[in-house]
Amino acid sequence: ALNAKGREEHGLLEGDTPRQIRQILRGKNLTPIDVNEVKEKSSHKSRGINTSRGRLKSAELALFTRQLATLLEAGTPLETALGTIANQQHKRAVKRIVLGIRSRVTEGYSLADSLQQFPSAFPGLYRATVAAGEHAGHLDKVLDRLADYTENSQEMQQKISAALIYPILLTFVSIAVVVGLLAYVVPQVVQVFDSIGQNLPVLTRTLIKVSEAVQAYGMVVFILIIIALVTFYQFYKREGF
């Protein structure tokens, strides 16, 4: 770009389109000469970032929908509303998703089409509902209903999670108690039976065999249970059940 004295200046500016960059330059009393896009593929790969696979938690999706619905109902243009929401985000991943949507909207795509580049963040039903609202010309009202739906879903998910904590904890404690009995109490009882020299019932002999198995492989079983619980927890967080 050329400054007021006719000298060339070079630099980097952040924007959605070359047209927006030219407008920013003119606002700084600079005459744009050439605007080139700088791609950050290497930095994204080094960080393991793929915006097309970005995810939103249920709480983040509900908040995004409510904010967008409120701004559109207030008469804010879609592009401006998305920019406002992006500036309010503290998490980089969420901000990157919102800016990606805004960039597509700025290029002329509809909101539903812009959401399609983040299928992991916005479910198919969500995108279809937004598309229906755009076609009907009532996007603000549809988003308001969608915000109610996402908030209710999040609240229900929290209630289910809270309800599952107690039975899971109770099950874990029960298993720990049974394992403790088999590993430490039953062997002492077996010594008493051995001293008497009496024939034991089938059920008692089976219990003794289980106790011996727990003593021999108890640590392996414990590690497998821990791995299973951690795997289930990670799957639970990823799928957002």
TrEMBL record:
Give the record's GO biological process terms. Answer: protein secretion
Top-level taxon of the source organism: Eukaryota
The secretion signal range is none
State where the protein is found. Cell inner membrane
- Per the record, the coiled-coil ranges are none
Entry annotated with the keyword Protease: no
An example Gene Ontology CC term for this record: plasma membrane
- Give a yes or no for keyword Transmembrane in this entry: yes
Tell me the membrane topology, using the record's own terms: Multi-pass membrane protein
What InterPro entries does the annotation carry? GspF/PilC, T2SS_GspF/T4SS_PilC_CS, T2SS_GspF_dom, T2SS_GspF_sf
Per its UniProt record, what Gene3D superfamilies does this chain match?
Type II secretion system (T2SS), domain F (1.20.81.30)
Which PROSITE patterns does this one have? Answer: T2SP_F
What UniProt keywords apply to this chain's record, in alphabetical order? Answer: Cell inner membrane, Cell membrane, Membrane, Transmembrane, Transmembrane helix, Transport
Q: Which PANTHER family match?
A: GENERAL SECRETION PATHWAY PROTEIN, TYPE II SECRETION SYSTEM PROTEIN F-RELATED
Q: Which family does it belong to?
A: Belongs to the GSP F family.
- Protein name per Swiss-Prot or TrEMBL: Uncharacterized protein
